[in-house]
Each structure stands twice: as C-alpha cells, then as structure tokens.
Amino acid sequence: MSTRFADRVASARRRDFVGRAAELAAFAQLLTGEGGALVWVSGPGGVGKTSLLHQFAGLAERAGRTVVWLDERVPDGDHLVVLADEAVETELLAALPADAVVAVASRAGPPVQYRTDPGWSSVLHPMPLVNLDPVESALLLTRRGVPAAAHADAMAFTHGHPLALALIADVRAQRREAAAPAGGPEVVATLLAALLDAVPSPAHRLALDAVSQVAGTTEPLLAELLDLPDAHELFEWLRGLSVMTASSHGLVLHDLAREVLARDLRWRHPELHATIHQRAGGYYRRRFAGAGPDEQRRILLDFAFLHRDNPVIGAFLQQRPSGDLRVVTAGPRRWPALREWVRRHEGTTSADLFDHWCRNQPEAVHAVVDAEDTAVGLAVLPTLHAPDPRDPAAAAAWRRAAPAAGEAVSLLRFWLDAEAYQQPSPVQALISLHAVRHYLVTPGLAYSLIYHADPELWAPMCEYVGFTRVEDADFVVDDRRYAGFGHDWRGMPRLAWLSMLASRETSAETAAPEPSTASGPLDRAAFTAAVRAALREWGRLDRLATSPLLSGRLLARVSGGRTAEALRTVVEEAAATLADSPRDRSAYRALHHTYLQPAGTQQAAADLLRLPMSTYRRHLAAGVDRLTEILWQWESTAEP
User: Helix or strand or coil: residue 176?
Assistant: First the structure.
C-alpha cells in the first residue's frame, strides 16, 4: 500500500521533534492504565503545545489506541485518545467514554474548578510547558540547518522558545543569508502575533510596552510608567495574559515576550522607550530612600535590569543574579574556605592580608551563598575611618581619598567568584549590587575604591558607572599590580549618582554605534582595545556587529563585507596561525578554551588544560597579545 501524504507529514514531525522527554514519558505511562485521564498542556503561544499533541497522537497509535481530534461532536468507542487544540467545554469532556485519555492544549492552565473539584482533580494531569534548554535548542537549530556558529546569537534572543528558534531557521533559509539577524523584523512581527493575546486598545498595548522594560511590575509601578493616577484595570488585564507569571514581587513577563516587545519598542518609538526608562528609574530612586536592606537589594536588582541592553555594561549584566543567591556576613566558620580561594587566585601574601580584615573588620567580610547555604563567592568591603598601613590597598586608598575629619573611605578589597574569579558571572553581578547598596547606605562616605586584577576587562563598566581609573591608588602584592577605580561622593552625591546612571541609560552618548564605513585604520591603542572587546563578545553576533574593527582594513582579507561573521573568520584565521606555531601553541589553547570555544569560566578552562591558575593566566595573556599582534600586522599591511 502506498504511503499517504499525512504519513509523510507525521514522519517528518517525529524526525524533527526535539525535547519534552518527561512529558512524553508521562503520557506513555497514562496510556498503559485502565482508567481515564485529562492531560492539560499549557503555555504561551509558540511554546510547542500543538507539536506535543501530535507526538501524543503518534504514541497512542503505536500503542494500538484510536486517536480522535475533538470537534463539536462527542466521539464514541473504547480506549480512545482524544486530542483538543483549545480549551473544551466541561459538558463535552464529561460526555466522553470513561476510559478515554484526553489531552487539551491551552494557553491558560486548567480552570480552577478542575483543580479544586475532587472528581475532576482525580483525573487531572497539569502539564505546563517551558522553553527548551540550551542542548535541546542547539539540536533543533542543527536539524533546521542553522550552523553552530550562529547558535549562541539565536539562543540569546529566543531563550529557547521553539517557535522563535524555528522562525530564525526559516528566515535564514528563505533569505539564504549566512548571518541573518536572530531578531530581524520578520521574526519579531511573527512572534508578536503568536505570543500576545488580543490587545483591546492602544492603552493596553502601551501597558505591554511598559512592562517589557522592567524586571517585574506592581500596580503602583505600572501607574508610574504610564503616568496614570490609577492603573488597576490595566494591571488586572495584564494578570490574565498567558505571557504573564505572578511572582511575590508582582507580574513578570515571559522572557521571549519581553525581548520581542522591548526590541520592537526601541525600533518603533525610541522616545517612548527612553521615557519609560526615566520613569522607572525615578520610581526606584524614590522607593530606595525609605526601604529596608532586603527591599533595597531588590530595588537595585530592578534598577540594574534597566541597563541590560546598554552596549557598555550589558555584557556584565546578562547573567542577572537569581533569587537563590544572597550575600551574608561570612563569620569565622566560613573564613578558612574563603581564605583558600584568595590564596588560590591571588597568592599567599594576599591570603595573609585577607586574615587581617577577618581580625580587624569581621563585619566587612561577606560570602555569596546559594540555596543550600554553600559559599560560592567572596566580597570584603571594609570601611576606613583612619589610615591602615598594614594593607597596601588600604594605604593607597586613604592616600588617594584624603578624607576630612569624620569622613569615611570604602574599599572593595577582595571580591571574587569561587570559580570564575573576577570574570562576569551571576555571583559577580550580585557582588556589584551589594557594593552599590553599601555605597548608598554608609554614613559619611567620602570616597570609594574598587580594585581589579584585570583592569582592561572592567574599565568600560567602571567608567560608565562613574568610577574613574586612578593609577595613583594602584598597589602591588607579590609582583602583581591591582588597579584602582574610584568615585568621589563629595563631588557627586549618591542620589545624583543614581540620576546620572538613569540618564546615561537613555542617552545618545551610550547608544550602540553603527559600524563605520571609514577606510582609515585604527590607531594601535584603539585597535588593541577593540580586539579584547571582540573576544569578550565572541558569542554575541549583535554585539560584534558594532565592533570598531569593522571600520578598518582588517576585513579586506575575507569576503562577506563588514559583518560580524566576517570578523569572526579573520580572528579565527589569526588564531590558527598560533595553533600552527610550537612556540605559541600553549597560548593558543588558553585563548581557544577561554574565548573561541569557551569552557565556561577561567577556572574551568584551567582545569581543562590541567594548568594552575597562575600558569593559565600567563598563557592566556600571551595568547591575547600574540593574537592582537598578528591582527595588527594584517590591519597595517592591508590595502586601503
């Protein structure tokens, strides 16, 4: 017998289906039972509810069951599997055979009467769907023909949303472009239609635009964002949307819905985008002044969220601290483990200086702990009211600040992620926010200093937040220089500082620059900084697309124009010359596992290479220097 067209479609669906292993296993188990069951599959538009129902149909057919897609008629028969691609009236469900297994797909979860009624709850199996994880997302993209080099950009935009991933693959295939943008107009427009329920009026759409800019929304915040005396009706409408989740701190928009709405608003109405940010910043500043410590920390998290797309510091805020992480006073029981981290990353002399602060300002020694109360990070934030010559960092800070009588100097002395050290991570993001709270609530604070082991990495963010490089506050321990970045609160008080940050978020000065078409080469200093920035942004095509390297002569070596993909090609060619050189091979391996194919953290890369951290960092520094040298040579010798 010839294969039916429907059979070919079903076969393709099974072949390309990705993920949902737990849901499929649960449904298969229900098929083996004798009694009936009501499986309620729920989730936002495009998350894969209908696709999962098709997989359920295949499982049922292979189990010998009769599959019926429900319409207005009540099906009859034994051992039925009934599928419905929308919510079903209770009367229709009640009329089905008692041994039927029913699967309903709906944006909303099961109605409250099904969850609370003893009869219905006895057969109900809620099955909320979430986005695909990174492994599943990469598999879906691969099966749709998207090359591995484009996966990171696609997953950063979609957060694993199945429809968004499929749309990106489709746009690339239709355009036949090697570097079609993940969040291009076709993808954004289709997702807006798929994700959002019916929007009754322009006021309701404005409410959606507003909440896409903030981490979480309460009714008073929504009124502030919309400049309304009362936003109760709009808040209640938002609460009922399938793309909204209620949390302890208000309504939270689905990640992809937020990304799509925010991107559309920035493009469609930049003035409104700026206005909403300014209103949110003002609301947070007012709330902060009268809040307690826990509330202040949450407000700072919300304030930092406003800066997530800023081209200067966005990369440092991508990994927003989770609610599972918190900062606590370390106490003596944690000190030995924290001391070992300092010794491992900075050496024995630094570990001895850590002991000094444990003895003399134990309240300044903080640990970042996870949900199991296990320490995962360290922050030592002493407050100086007098010179302390025993630590060169404190001596340099006091000398630089020159405080008057009664004034204090704060010092972010030791700060690190147990594994990532001072590389960007959720732990580092939380330490930064903890330090900000410390600056805002410490009485009599005249000056603050932060010390970095890798100043080139952190310089753009420090400059952005008003902490300028102060070389005369640098100090050296065990032949290693630590760079100081300081802020004088006497010249810019704390509320003025917060206002500056809010204004910079929507300032044209910090807007992501368009790639220049100038033909002249960069100077050596600017070129070196651009190479290091490109390595840090390696996984983000959208950020690489703004690299100053695209404005020079470097890309004349390859075809493809001044694109992020072309830049990657040139850098990989330069790195390959290191790999081919016995003298540079160790440097190449450190560079490769840190940036080009990252192991995750510097500690993970060092472990992979089986090197002590000090040796690994030496190899990495050499790799970056040699790569920059090769690229500079190509830049300088290329034809104009």
Answer: coil
Q: How many CB atoms lie within 10 A of CB 454?
A: 16
Helical ranges in 117-196 per DSSP H: 118-121, 134-143, 151-158, 162-175, 185-195
Token output for 220: 């008073």
DSSP β-ladder status, 80-84 and 250-253: unpaired
Which position has the token pair 């709405």? 261
pLDDT of 420 > 80? The answer is yes
How far apart CA 20 and CA 24 sit, in angstroms, is: 6
Write out pLDDT tens, residues 283-339: 888 887 778 767 776 787 787 778 776 655 555 555 455 567 889 999 999 999 999
Pairing of strands 445-452, 480-488: antiparallel
- Listed as own residue / partner, the contacts of 59-62 with beta carbons closer than 8 Å and 24 or more positions apart are 59/24, 59/27, 59/28, 59/31, 60/31, 60/101
Average pLDDT, the chain: 81
- Given the structure tokens 């729920």, which residue do they identify? 42
| DSSP state for residue 581 in the 8-state scheme | -
- Using DSSP's 3-state secondary structure scheme, residue 383 falls into strand
Measured distance CA(83)–CA(310) in Å, rounded: 46
Question: Kind of pairing, strands 475-477 and 480-488?
Answer: antiparallel
Measured CA distances, 304 to 284, 297, 321, 373, 433 (Å): 10, 11, 10, 25, 8
Residue type, 498: L
- Tens of pLDDT, residue by residue over 463-493, are 878 899 998 899 999 888 999 999 999 888 7
Instruction: Give percent above pLDDT 90 in the chain.
Output: 20
The structure tokens listed for 292 are 């307690």
Could you give the domains of the chain? 5-128 (3.40.50.300), 134-193 (no CATH), 196-306 (no CATH), 326-510 (3.40.630.30), 524-637 (no CATH)
Contacts of 625 (CB under 8 A, 6+ apart): none
Contacts by residues 562-568 (CB-CB < 8 Å, ≥ 24 positions apart): 562/515, 562/517, 563/179, 564/179, 565/149, 565/178, 565/179, 565/541, 567/534, 568/149, 568/538, 568/544
- Angle at alpha carbon of residue 463, lines to 614 and 421, rounded to 5°: 25
Helix (H) or strand (E) holding 106: strand 101-106
Query: Cβ-count burial of 633 within 10 angstroms (0-12 exposed, 13-18 middle, 19+ buried)?
Result: exposed
Answering whether pTM is above 0.70, one says no
What average pLDDT score do residues 11-40 get?
Answer: 84
Report the Cα–Cα distance between both ends of the chain, in Å, rounded.
67
Cα 467 from Cα 281, distance rounded (Å): 20
> How far is C-alpha 41 from the chain's CA centre?
27
